[in-house]
Fold:
Amino acid sequence: MAAPDLATLTVSGARDGLRSGTWTSEELTTGYLERIRSVDPSVHAFLHVADELALAKAAEADRVRAEGHGEPPPLLGVPLAVKDVLSTQEMDTTCGSRILKGYRPPFTATAVERLQAAGSVLLGKTNTDEFAMGSSTENSGYGPTRNPWDLTRVPGGSSGGSAAAVACGLAPGALGTDTGGSVRQPAAFCGIVGLKPSYGRISRYGLVAFGSSLDQIGPLCRSVEDAALLLEVMAGRDPRDSTTVPEPVPAYSRDLDGDVSGLKLGVPEEYFIDGMQPEVEGRVRDAVEHMAGLGAEIVPVSLPHTDMALPVYYLVVTAEASANLSRYDGVRFGHSAQAGSMTENYRQTRAQGFGDEVKRRIMLGTYALSVGYYDAYYLKAQQVRTLIKRDFDRVFEQVDLLICPATPTTAFEIGDRVDDPLSMYLADVFTLSVNLAGVCGISLPCGTDAAGLPVGLQLIGPHLGEQALLNAAHAYESTTDWHTRVPDPIA
Amino acid sequence: MTSARSADLVTVGGIEWQLVVGMEVHAQVATRSKMFCACSATYQGFDPNSHVCPVCLGMPGAMPVINQRAVEATIATGLALGCRIPDTAVFARKNYTYPDLPKGYQITQFEYPLCVDGRVDIPLPGGDTGTIRIRRAHLEEDTGKTTHEGGSSLVDLNRAGVPLMEIVTEADITSAEEAYGFLVRLRTILRYLGVNSGDMEKGALRCEPNISVRTAEQAARGAYGTKVEVKNLNSLRAVRAAIAFEHNRQARVLAKGGSIEQVNMGWDESRQITVLQRSKESSDDYRYFPEPDLPPLRISPEDIAHIEAGLPELVQAKEDRYVNDWGVRPAEASLLASERPLATWFEAAVAAWGGEDGKPQTMALWVTTELLALLHRQGEGQDLRQIADIRVQPHQLADLLTALADRQINNNTAKQVLAAMMETGEDPNAIIEREGLALVSDTSMLDAAILEIFEANPDEHARIQAGEMKLLGFFMGQVMKATRGQADPQTARTRLQELLGSGS
Structure:
């Protein structure tokens, strides 16, 4: 066989090689598992590697292909990684939290189930900020993940494990979740593609909830085509998640034509702010020019309530999280302090099991919902959220998509912001409006800074506007080579 | 509130203390599956934690899906209670921590319930009518059960997630009797709709009265006393007794210059008193907010019309129809309409026998007296709904009453035959024939018997012939004796007079 270059192999590339018989799933899976063994001790992208299980699934995929009854499922034999906030019946699911150490769910998340039904092979579960609360993966209860471009830097978060794994070729693609930017921001920091689909496009069943009205599963991968491929496998109505939308799922990957002539691209002025890294602004402005060169019409636009998105987000998401995390009480699953009285057991289980950021957010959310504060905080936040949504509704009457930076800076140093939650929260300032509005967004590499760290370009589309979004991203990607760059090999 | 009813008053210290009660009723909605998952909603008589799944166990990542049947049942109840059904209902999370609440929050409805602003009219003793306004009726999930055993607590989550309707009244109830009447009527409506078993002993229906007292002066300026919530009421009688007890207790405390604390009391059935359960030092903060896992429920006028079209004729409408259209007396009409199976049985019997000329009232009397007496003797309890299971079919009772009306049998025989029908389920005519119970109205047979009696009693015969007409009773008795009570009295009397030659 021709040995695949795992450092650059894409999901579609892996699939094509399997189809053509260039390699088998077992060979591919073995290759990734070996690479994980050698590289991951330095990166710590994985919390759990499913060696035997993955090899067994790979062998089964090869058998299915060899028997060759009809069209094989679209991802047959393709190895993938999954963020550890997605429930997997066959592997522990910890959410990066000590409170769920050793927790094995009795069911598998719909999105993962659909990937498995499409034939993919799960390599393991990737690191995350505890319960997806964070922007650097430093809040993991099992130690931070490092950025493959510079091991002293963070990979972003909370899907930092998935982003790092894909960036250094430990998997061709991975699933993340995006509540305020947790797919797009680490994708930007790690120089890969990250898609946050519209709210309701992919079932959240089995996604361990953080901010239920904001959470959405999204793929992290090496190409826009891969993002389209994974999206079309996972998307669609799920009777187990009442918030999924019934609209049929287009063949996103088939219809990527790369034609953006006449496309109206809005440049929101509020997304170019004082204090952002000049190189980030520079690369993104270059990308805007590039799109104009491809035939897109560039239109300056305004989303006037953008500066309120951060406070609104942290009120809504913490309120929801405070309730979502009530179930970790040491009674039915996960860590239990086994302390004397009922109340004492609750207290100690949660004190021991949760990290500082989780505790901080539970307290913030509890406060925002309390009698006497509800109107001033939670209710007010919901009202402003409506205004933010309206900003997007109005702007999408003028333009087809928005183009802007994914993050204000490139990847920062590990330890730099852990003691300053507010500066950490600012890492998501360009991404979280998208979640509040329920629209879709994608981050893709558009250059590097002076230190050689990747810069992420963000495109934003209206609710269920994934096809146009992926198209435009594909147009940029197929006429640039930033996505082909990989970090130096890690010994 | 109507003024045509008498409120309960307790006079202590020369002051009359009025009673004010508002009621919270929790009714389990009789659906097959739970409120937000496909688990069976049957929770009694099964191993603990056997009817559970990731959703009702509150496992991470599990999500609720609304049971449409429960929504329809709640809307149907709302319509039956005269409620308005807003076009949008929103589920909300009510946050509190307890081991039998797996998620740490209960999914309920808060700002936007399914049903609002209804009313229930209830008959009161003495012919008065009371009106209790319904503030709201909403849908939520039940909790599991915690039992404390030898220092440890055991949690059974079979009941967790069972659909529960909460019906809240305004503080319109002014007497224990009225509270009782309201609950009887509410339970009847719920049973009519088939949405709840009405079983308070098993906890399918739970009532929590909020009880306060106030003086006439307070009432005049619209002020209320501090209310006490009473829990652990397992029967309608217990609700009535607890309200009366609290009324007295609160009046005495206040009359002595004490004050009522806002507390939860529990009803001690054996001692017939309320006891302090939990003091509410600070008001609970449940931090309600809209449930993000469930989109708002949109209820269209078509949805409502569809549910309304499926509603059965309800208790009051039936009662009115029996009285107005069929001439049934109110007492029987009220009893017959009080349980849907009984009303159904009665209506089938009327349909079989005919609705003209006082027949429904005759049928009503037979059902409410003879048939229910037999039912009561036969059954363990006094559950009128058991009529659905008796062996006598409505058309058979109609046949029996036809036989009676045609004077094939007399009244006493009819009762005997009905008792036999209850045992065997046989047709009345078969019983009458086999047992030889038909009245003798064959004149030749009667004539022969009468002539024999004349011969056997020559003295009396001579006296009656001489005009001593009071002896007619003696001869009637003799005829009845000779025919073992099966002579048709009217025919016998006519024949006697004829043969005595005094028929003219």
